[in-house]
Amino acid sequence: MTRIALALVHHPVLDRAGSAVTTAITNLDLHDIARSARTYGVPDFFVVHPIAAQRLLAERIREHWVTGSGKQRIPDRAEALALLRVVSAMDDVYTALAGDAGRGGVELWTTAASSRSGSLTAYHDARERLAASARPVLITFGTGWGLARDLVDDADVRLAPICAGADTGYNHLSVRAACAITLDRLLG
Amino acid sequence: MTRIALALVHHPVLDRAGSAVTTAITNLDLHDIARSARTYGVPDFFVVHPIAAQRLLAERIREHWVTGSGKQRIPDRAEALALLRVVSAMDDVYTALAGDAGRGGVELWTTAASSRSGSLTAYHDARERLAASARPVLITFGTGWGLARDLVDDADVRLAPICAGADTGYNHLSVRAACAITLDRLLG
Fold first, then answer.
1. How far apart are CA B40 and CA A171, in angstroms?
2. ipTM of the complex, rounded to two decimals
3. A188 contacts in chain B (CB < 8 Å)
């Protein structure tokens, strides 16, 4: 079985105007993506944020649900939020997954709502590639208006945008919804 | 094309202990499900809540994004939240979809995370049934610990729980994630 990990990236991501920015952590992103990861058997969910106070917030949310009073109230949630790993940069994710090999030891996949990047991989092909990968596969999701160009350019696989069957002329899923659909298409 | 509608039900739903309760509205439920509905071409998203103050809250959220200052900031969001229809009970949903025919004029589908209800319909079969339905199809999602028994018993179709490919022993998706996956499986 290929090792699979998710990363929710808060920097570098784009704002509406296409500039690289840092976004704030959204509590329900952590819950929803952790729950989806746990449901589909993905063992690692990295939250990438360069600001210490924001990482502390994420750690406190994790603690509340994994060992604190949240666990008493909703025990199931502990199993999901235990997957959460809070790091400051993508390099930390690569090291966590591949040790000294770093970026070279990881197969980096990006997701996007638009098809501006060339050479996109359809879900059907991605599913096969996922099963065959010798390296751990890291599937990244951007907050804000999506992952910054440098990260997308560095990817080994750029997943095609999620496409509704009919042409509805609209493709603005939340990152929580997009992550759920991506996991279902790749692993469901 | 079959007319499809979604309903997010806050009453009657279950609590942890299996009692029928009323849950509070969650802001991001409205956003995420509206965005998923719009992306997949579903024209109606009903929010069902028996308490007037909670309906007012939902109406204000809708107004903020459809005609208020939210629309200036994120114009795409207006198109999604314009699908939102806030009603007090399931009967209002039936009347909105089928007029005087009411419940009899609607094909009622329920979703659930567990398979406690018998005669479940797999997604593959549901997809065919959806395309062939002469009546509008209403797909309902429960908040809290899921839809109350009476509603599930009344359903024409009970969708099978979303099943991850491998047996991961965990099935606690958020309603936002479950709705996104359901739409992708039925319409994607």
1. 8
2. 0.96
3. 162-165, 181
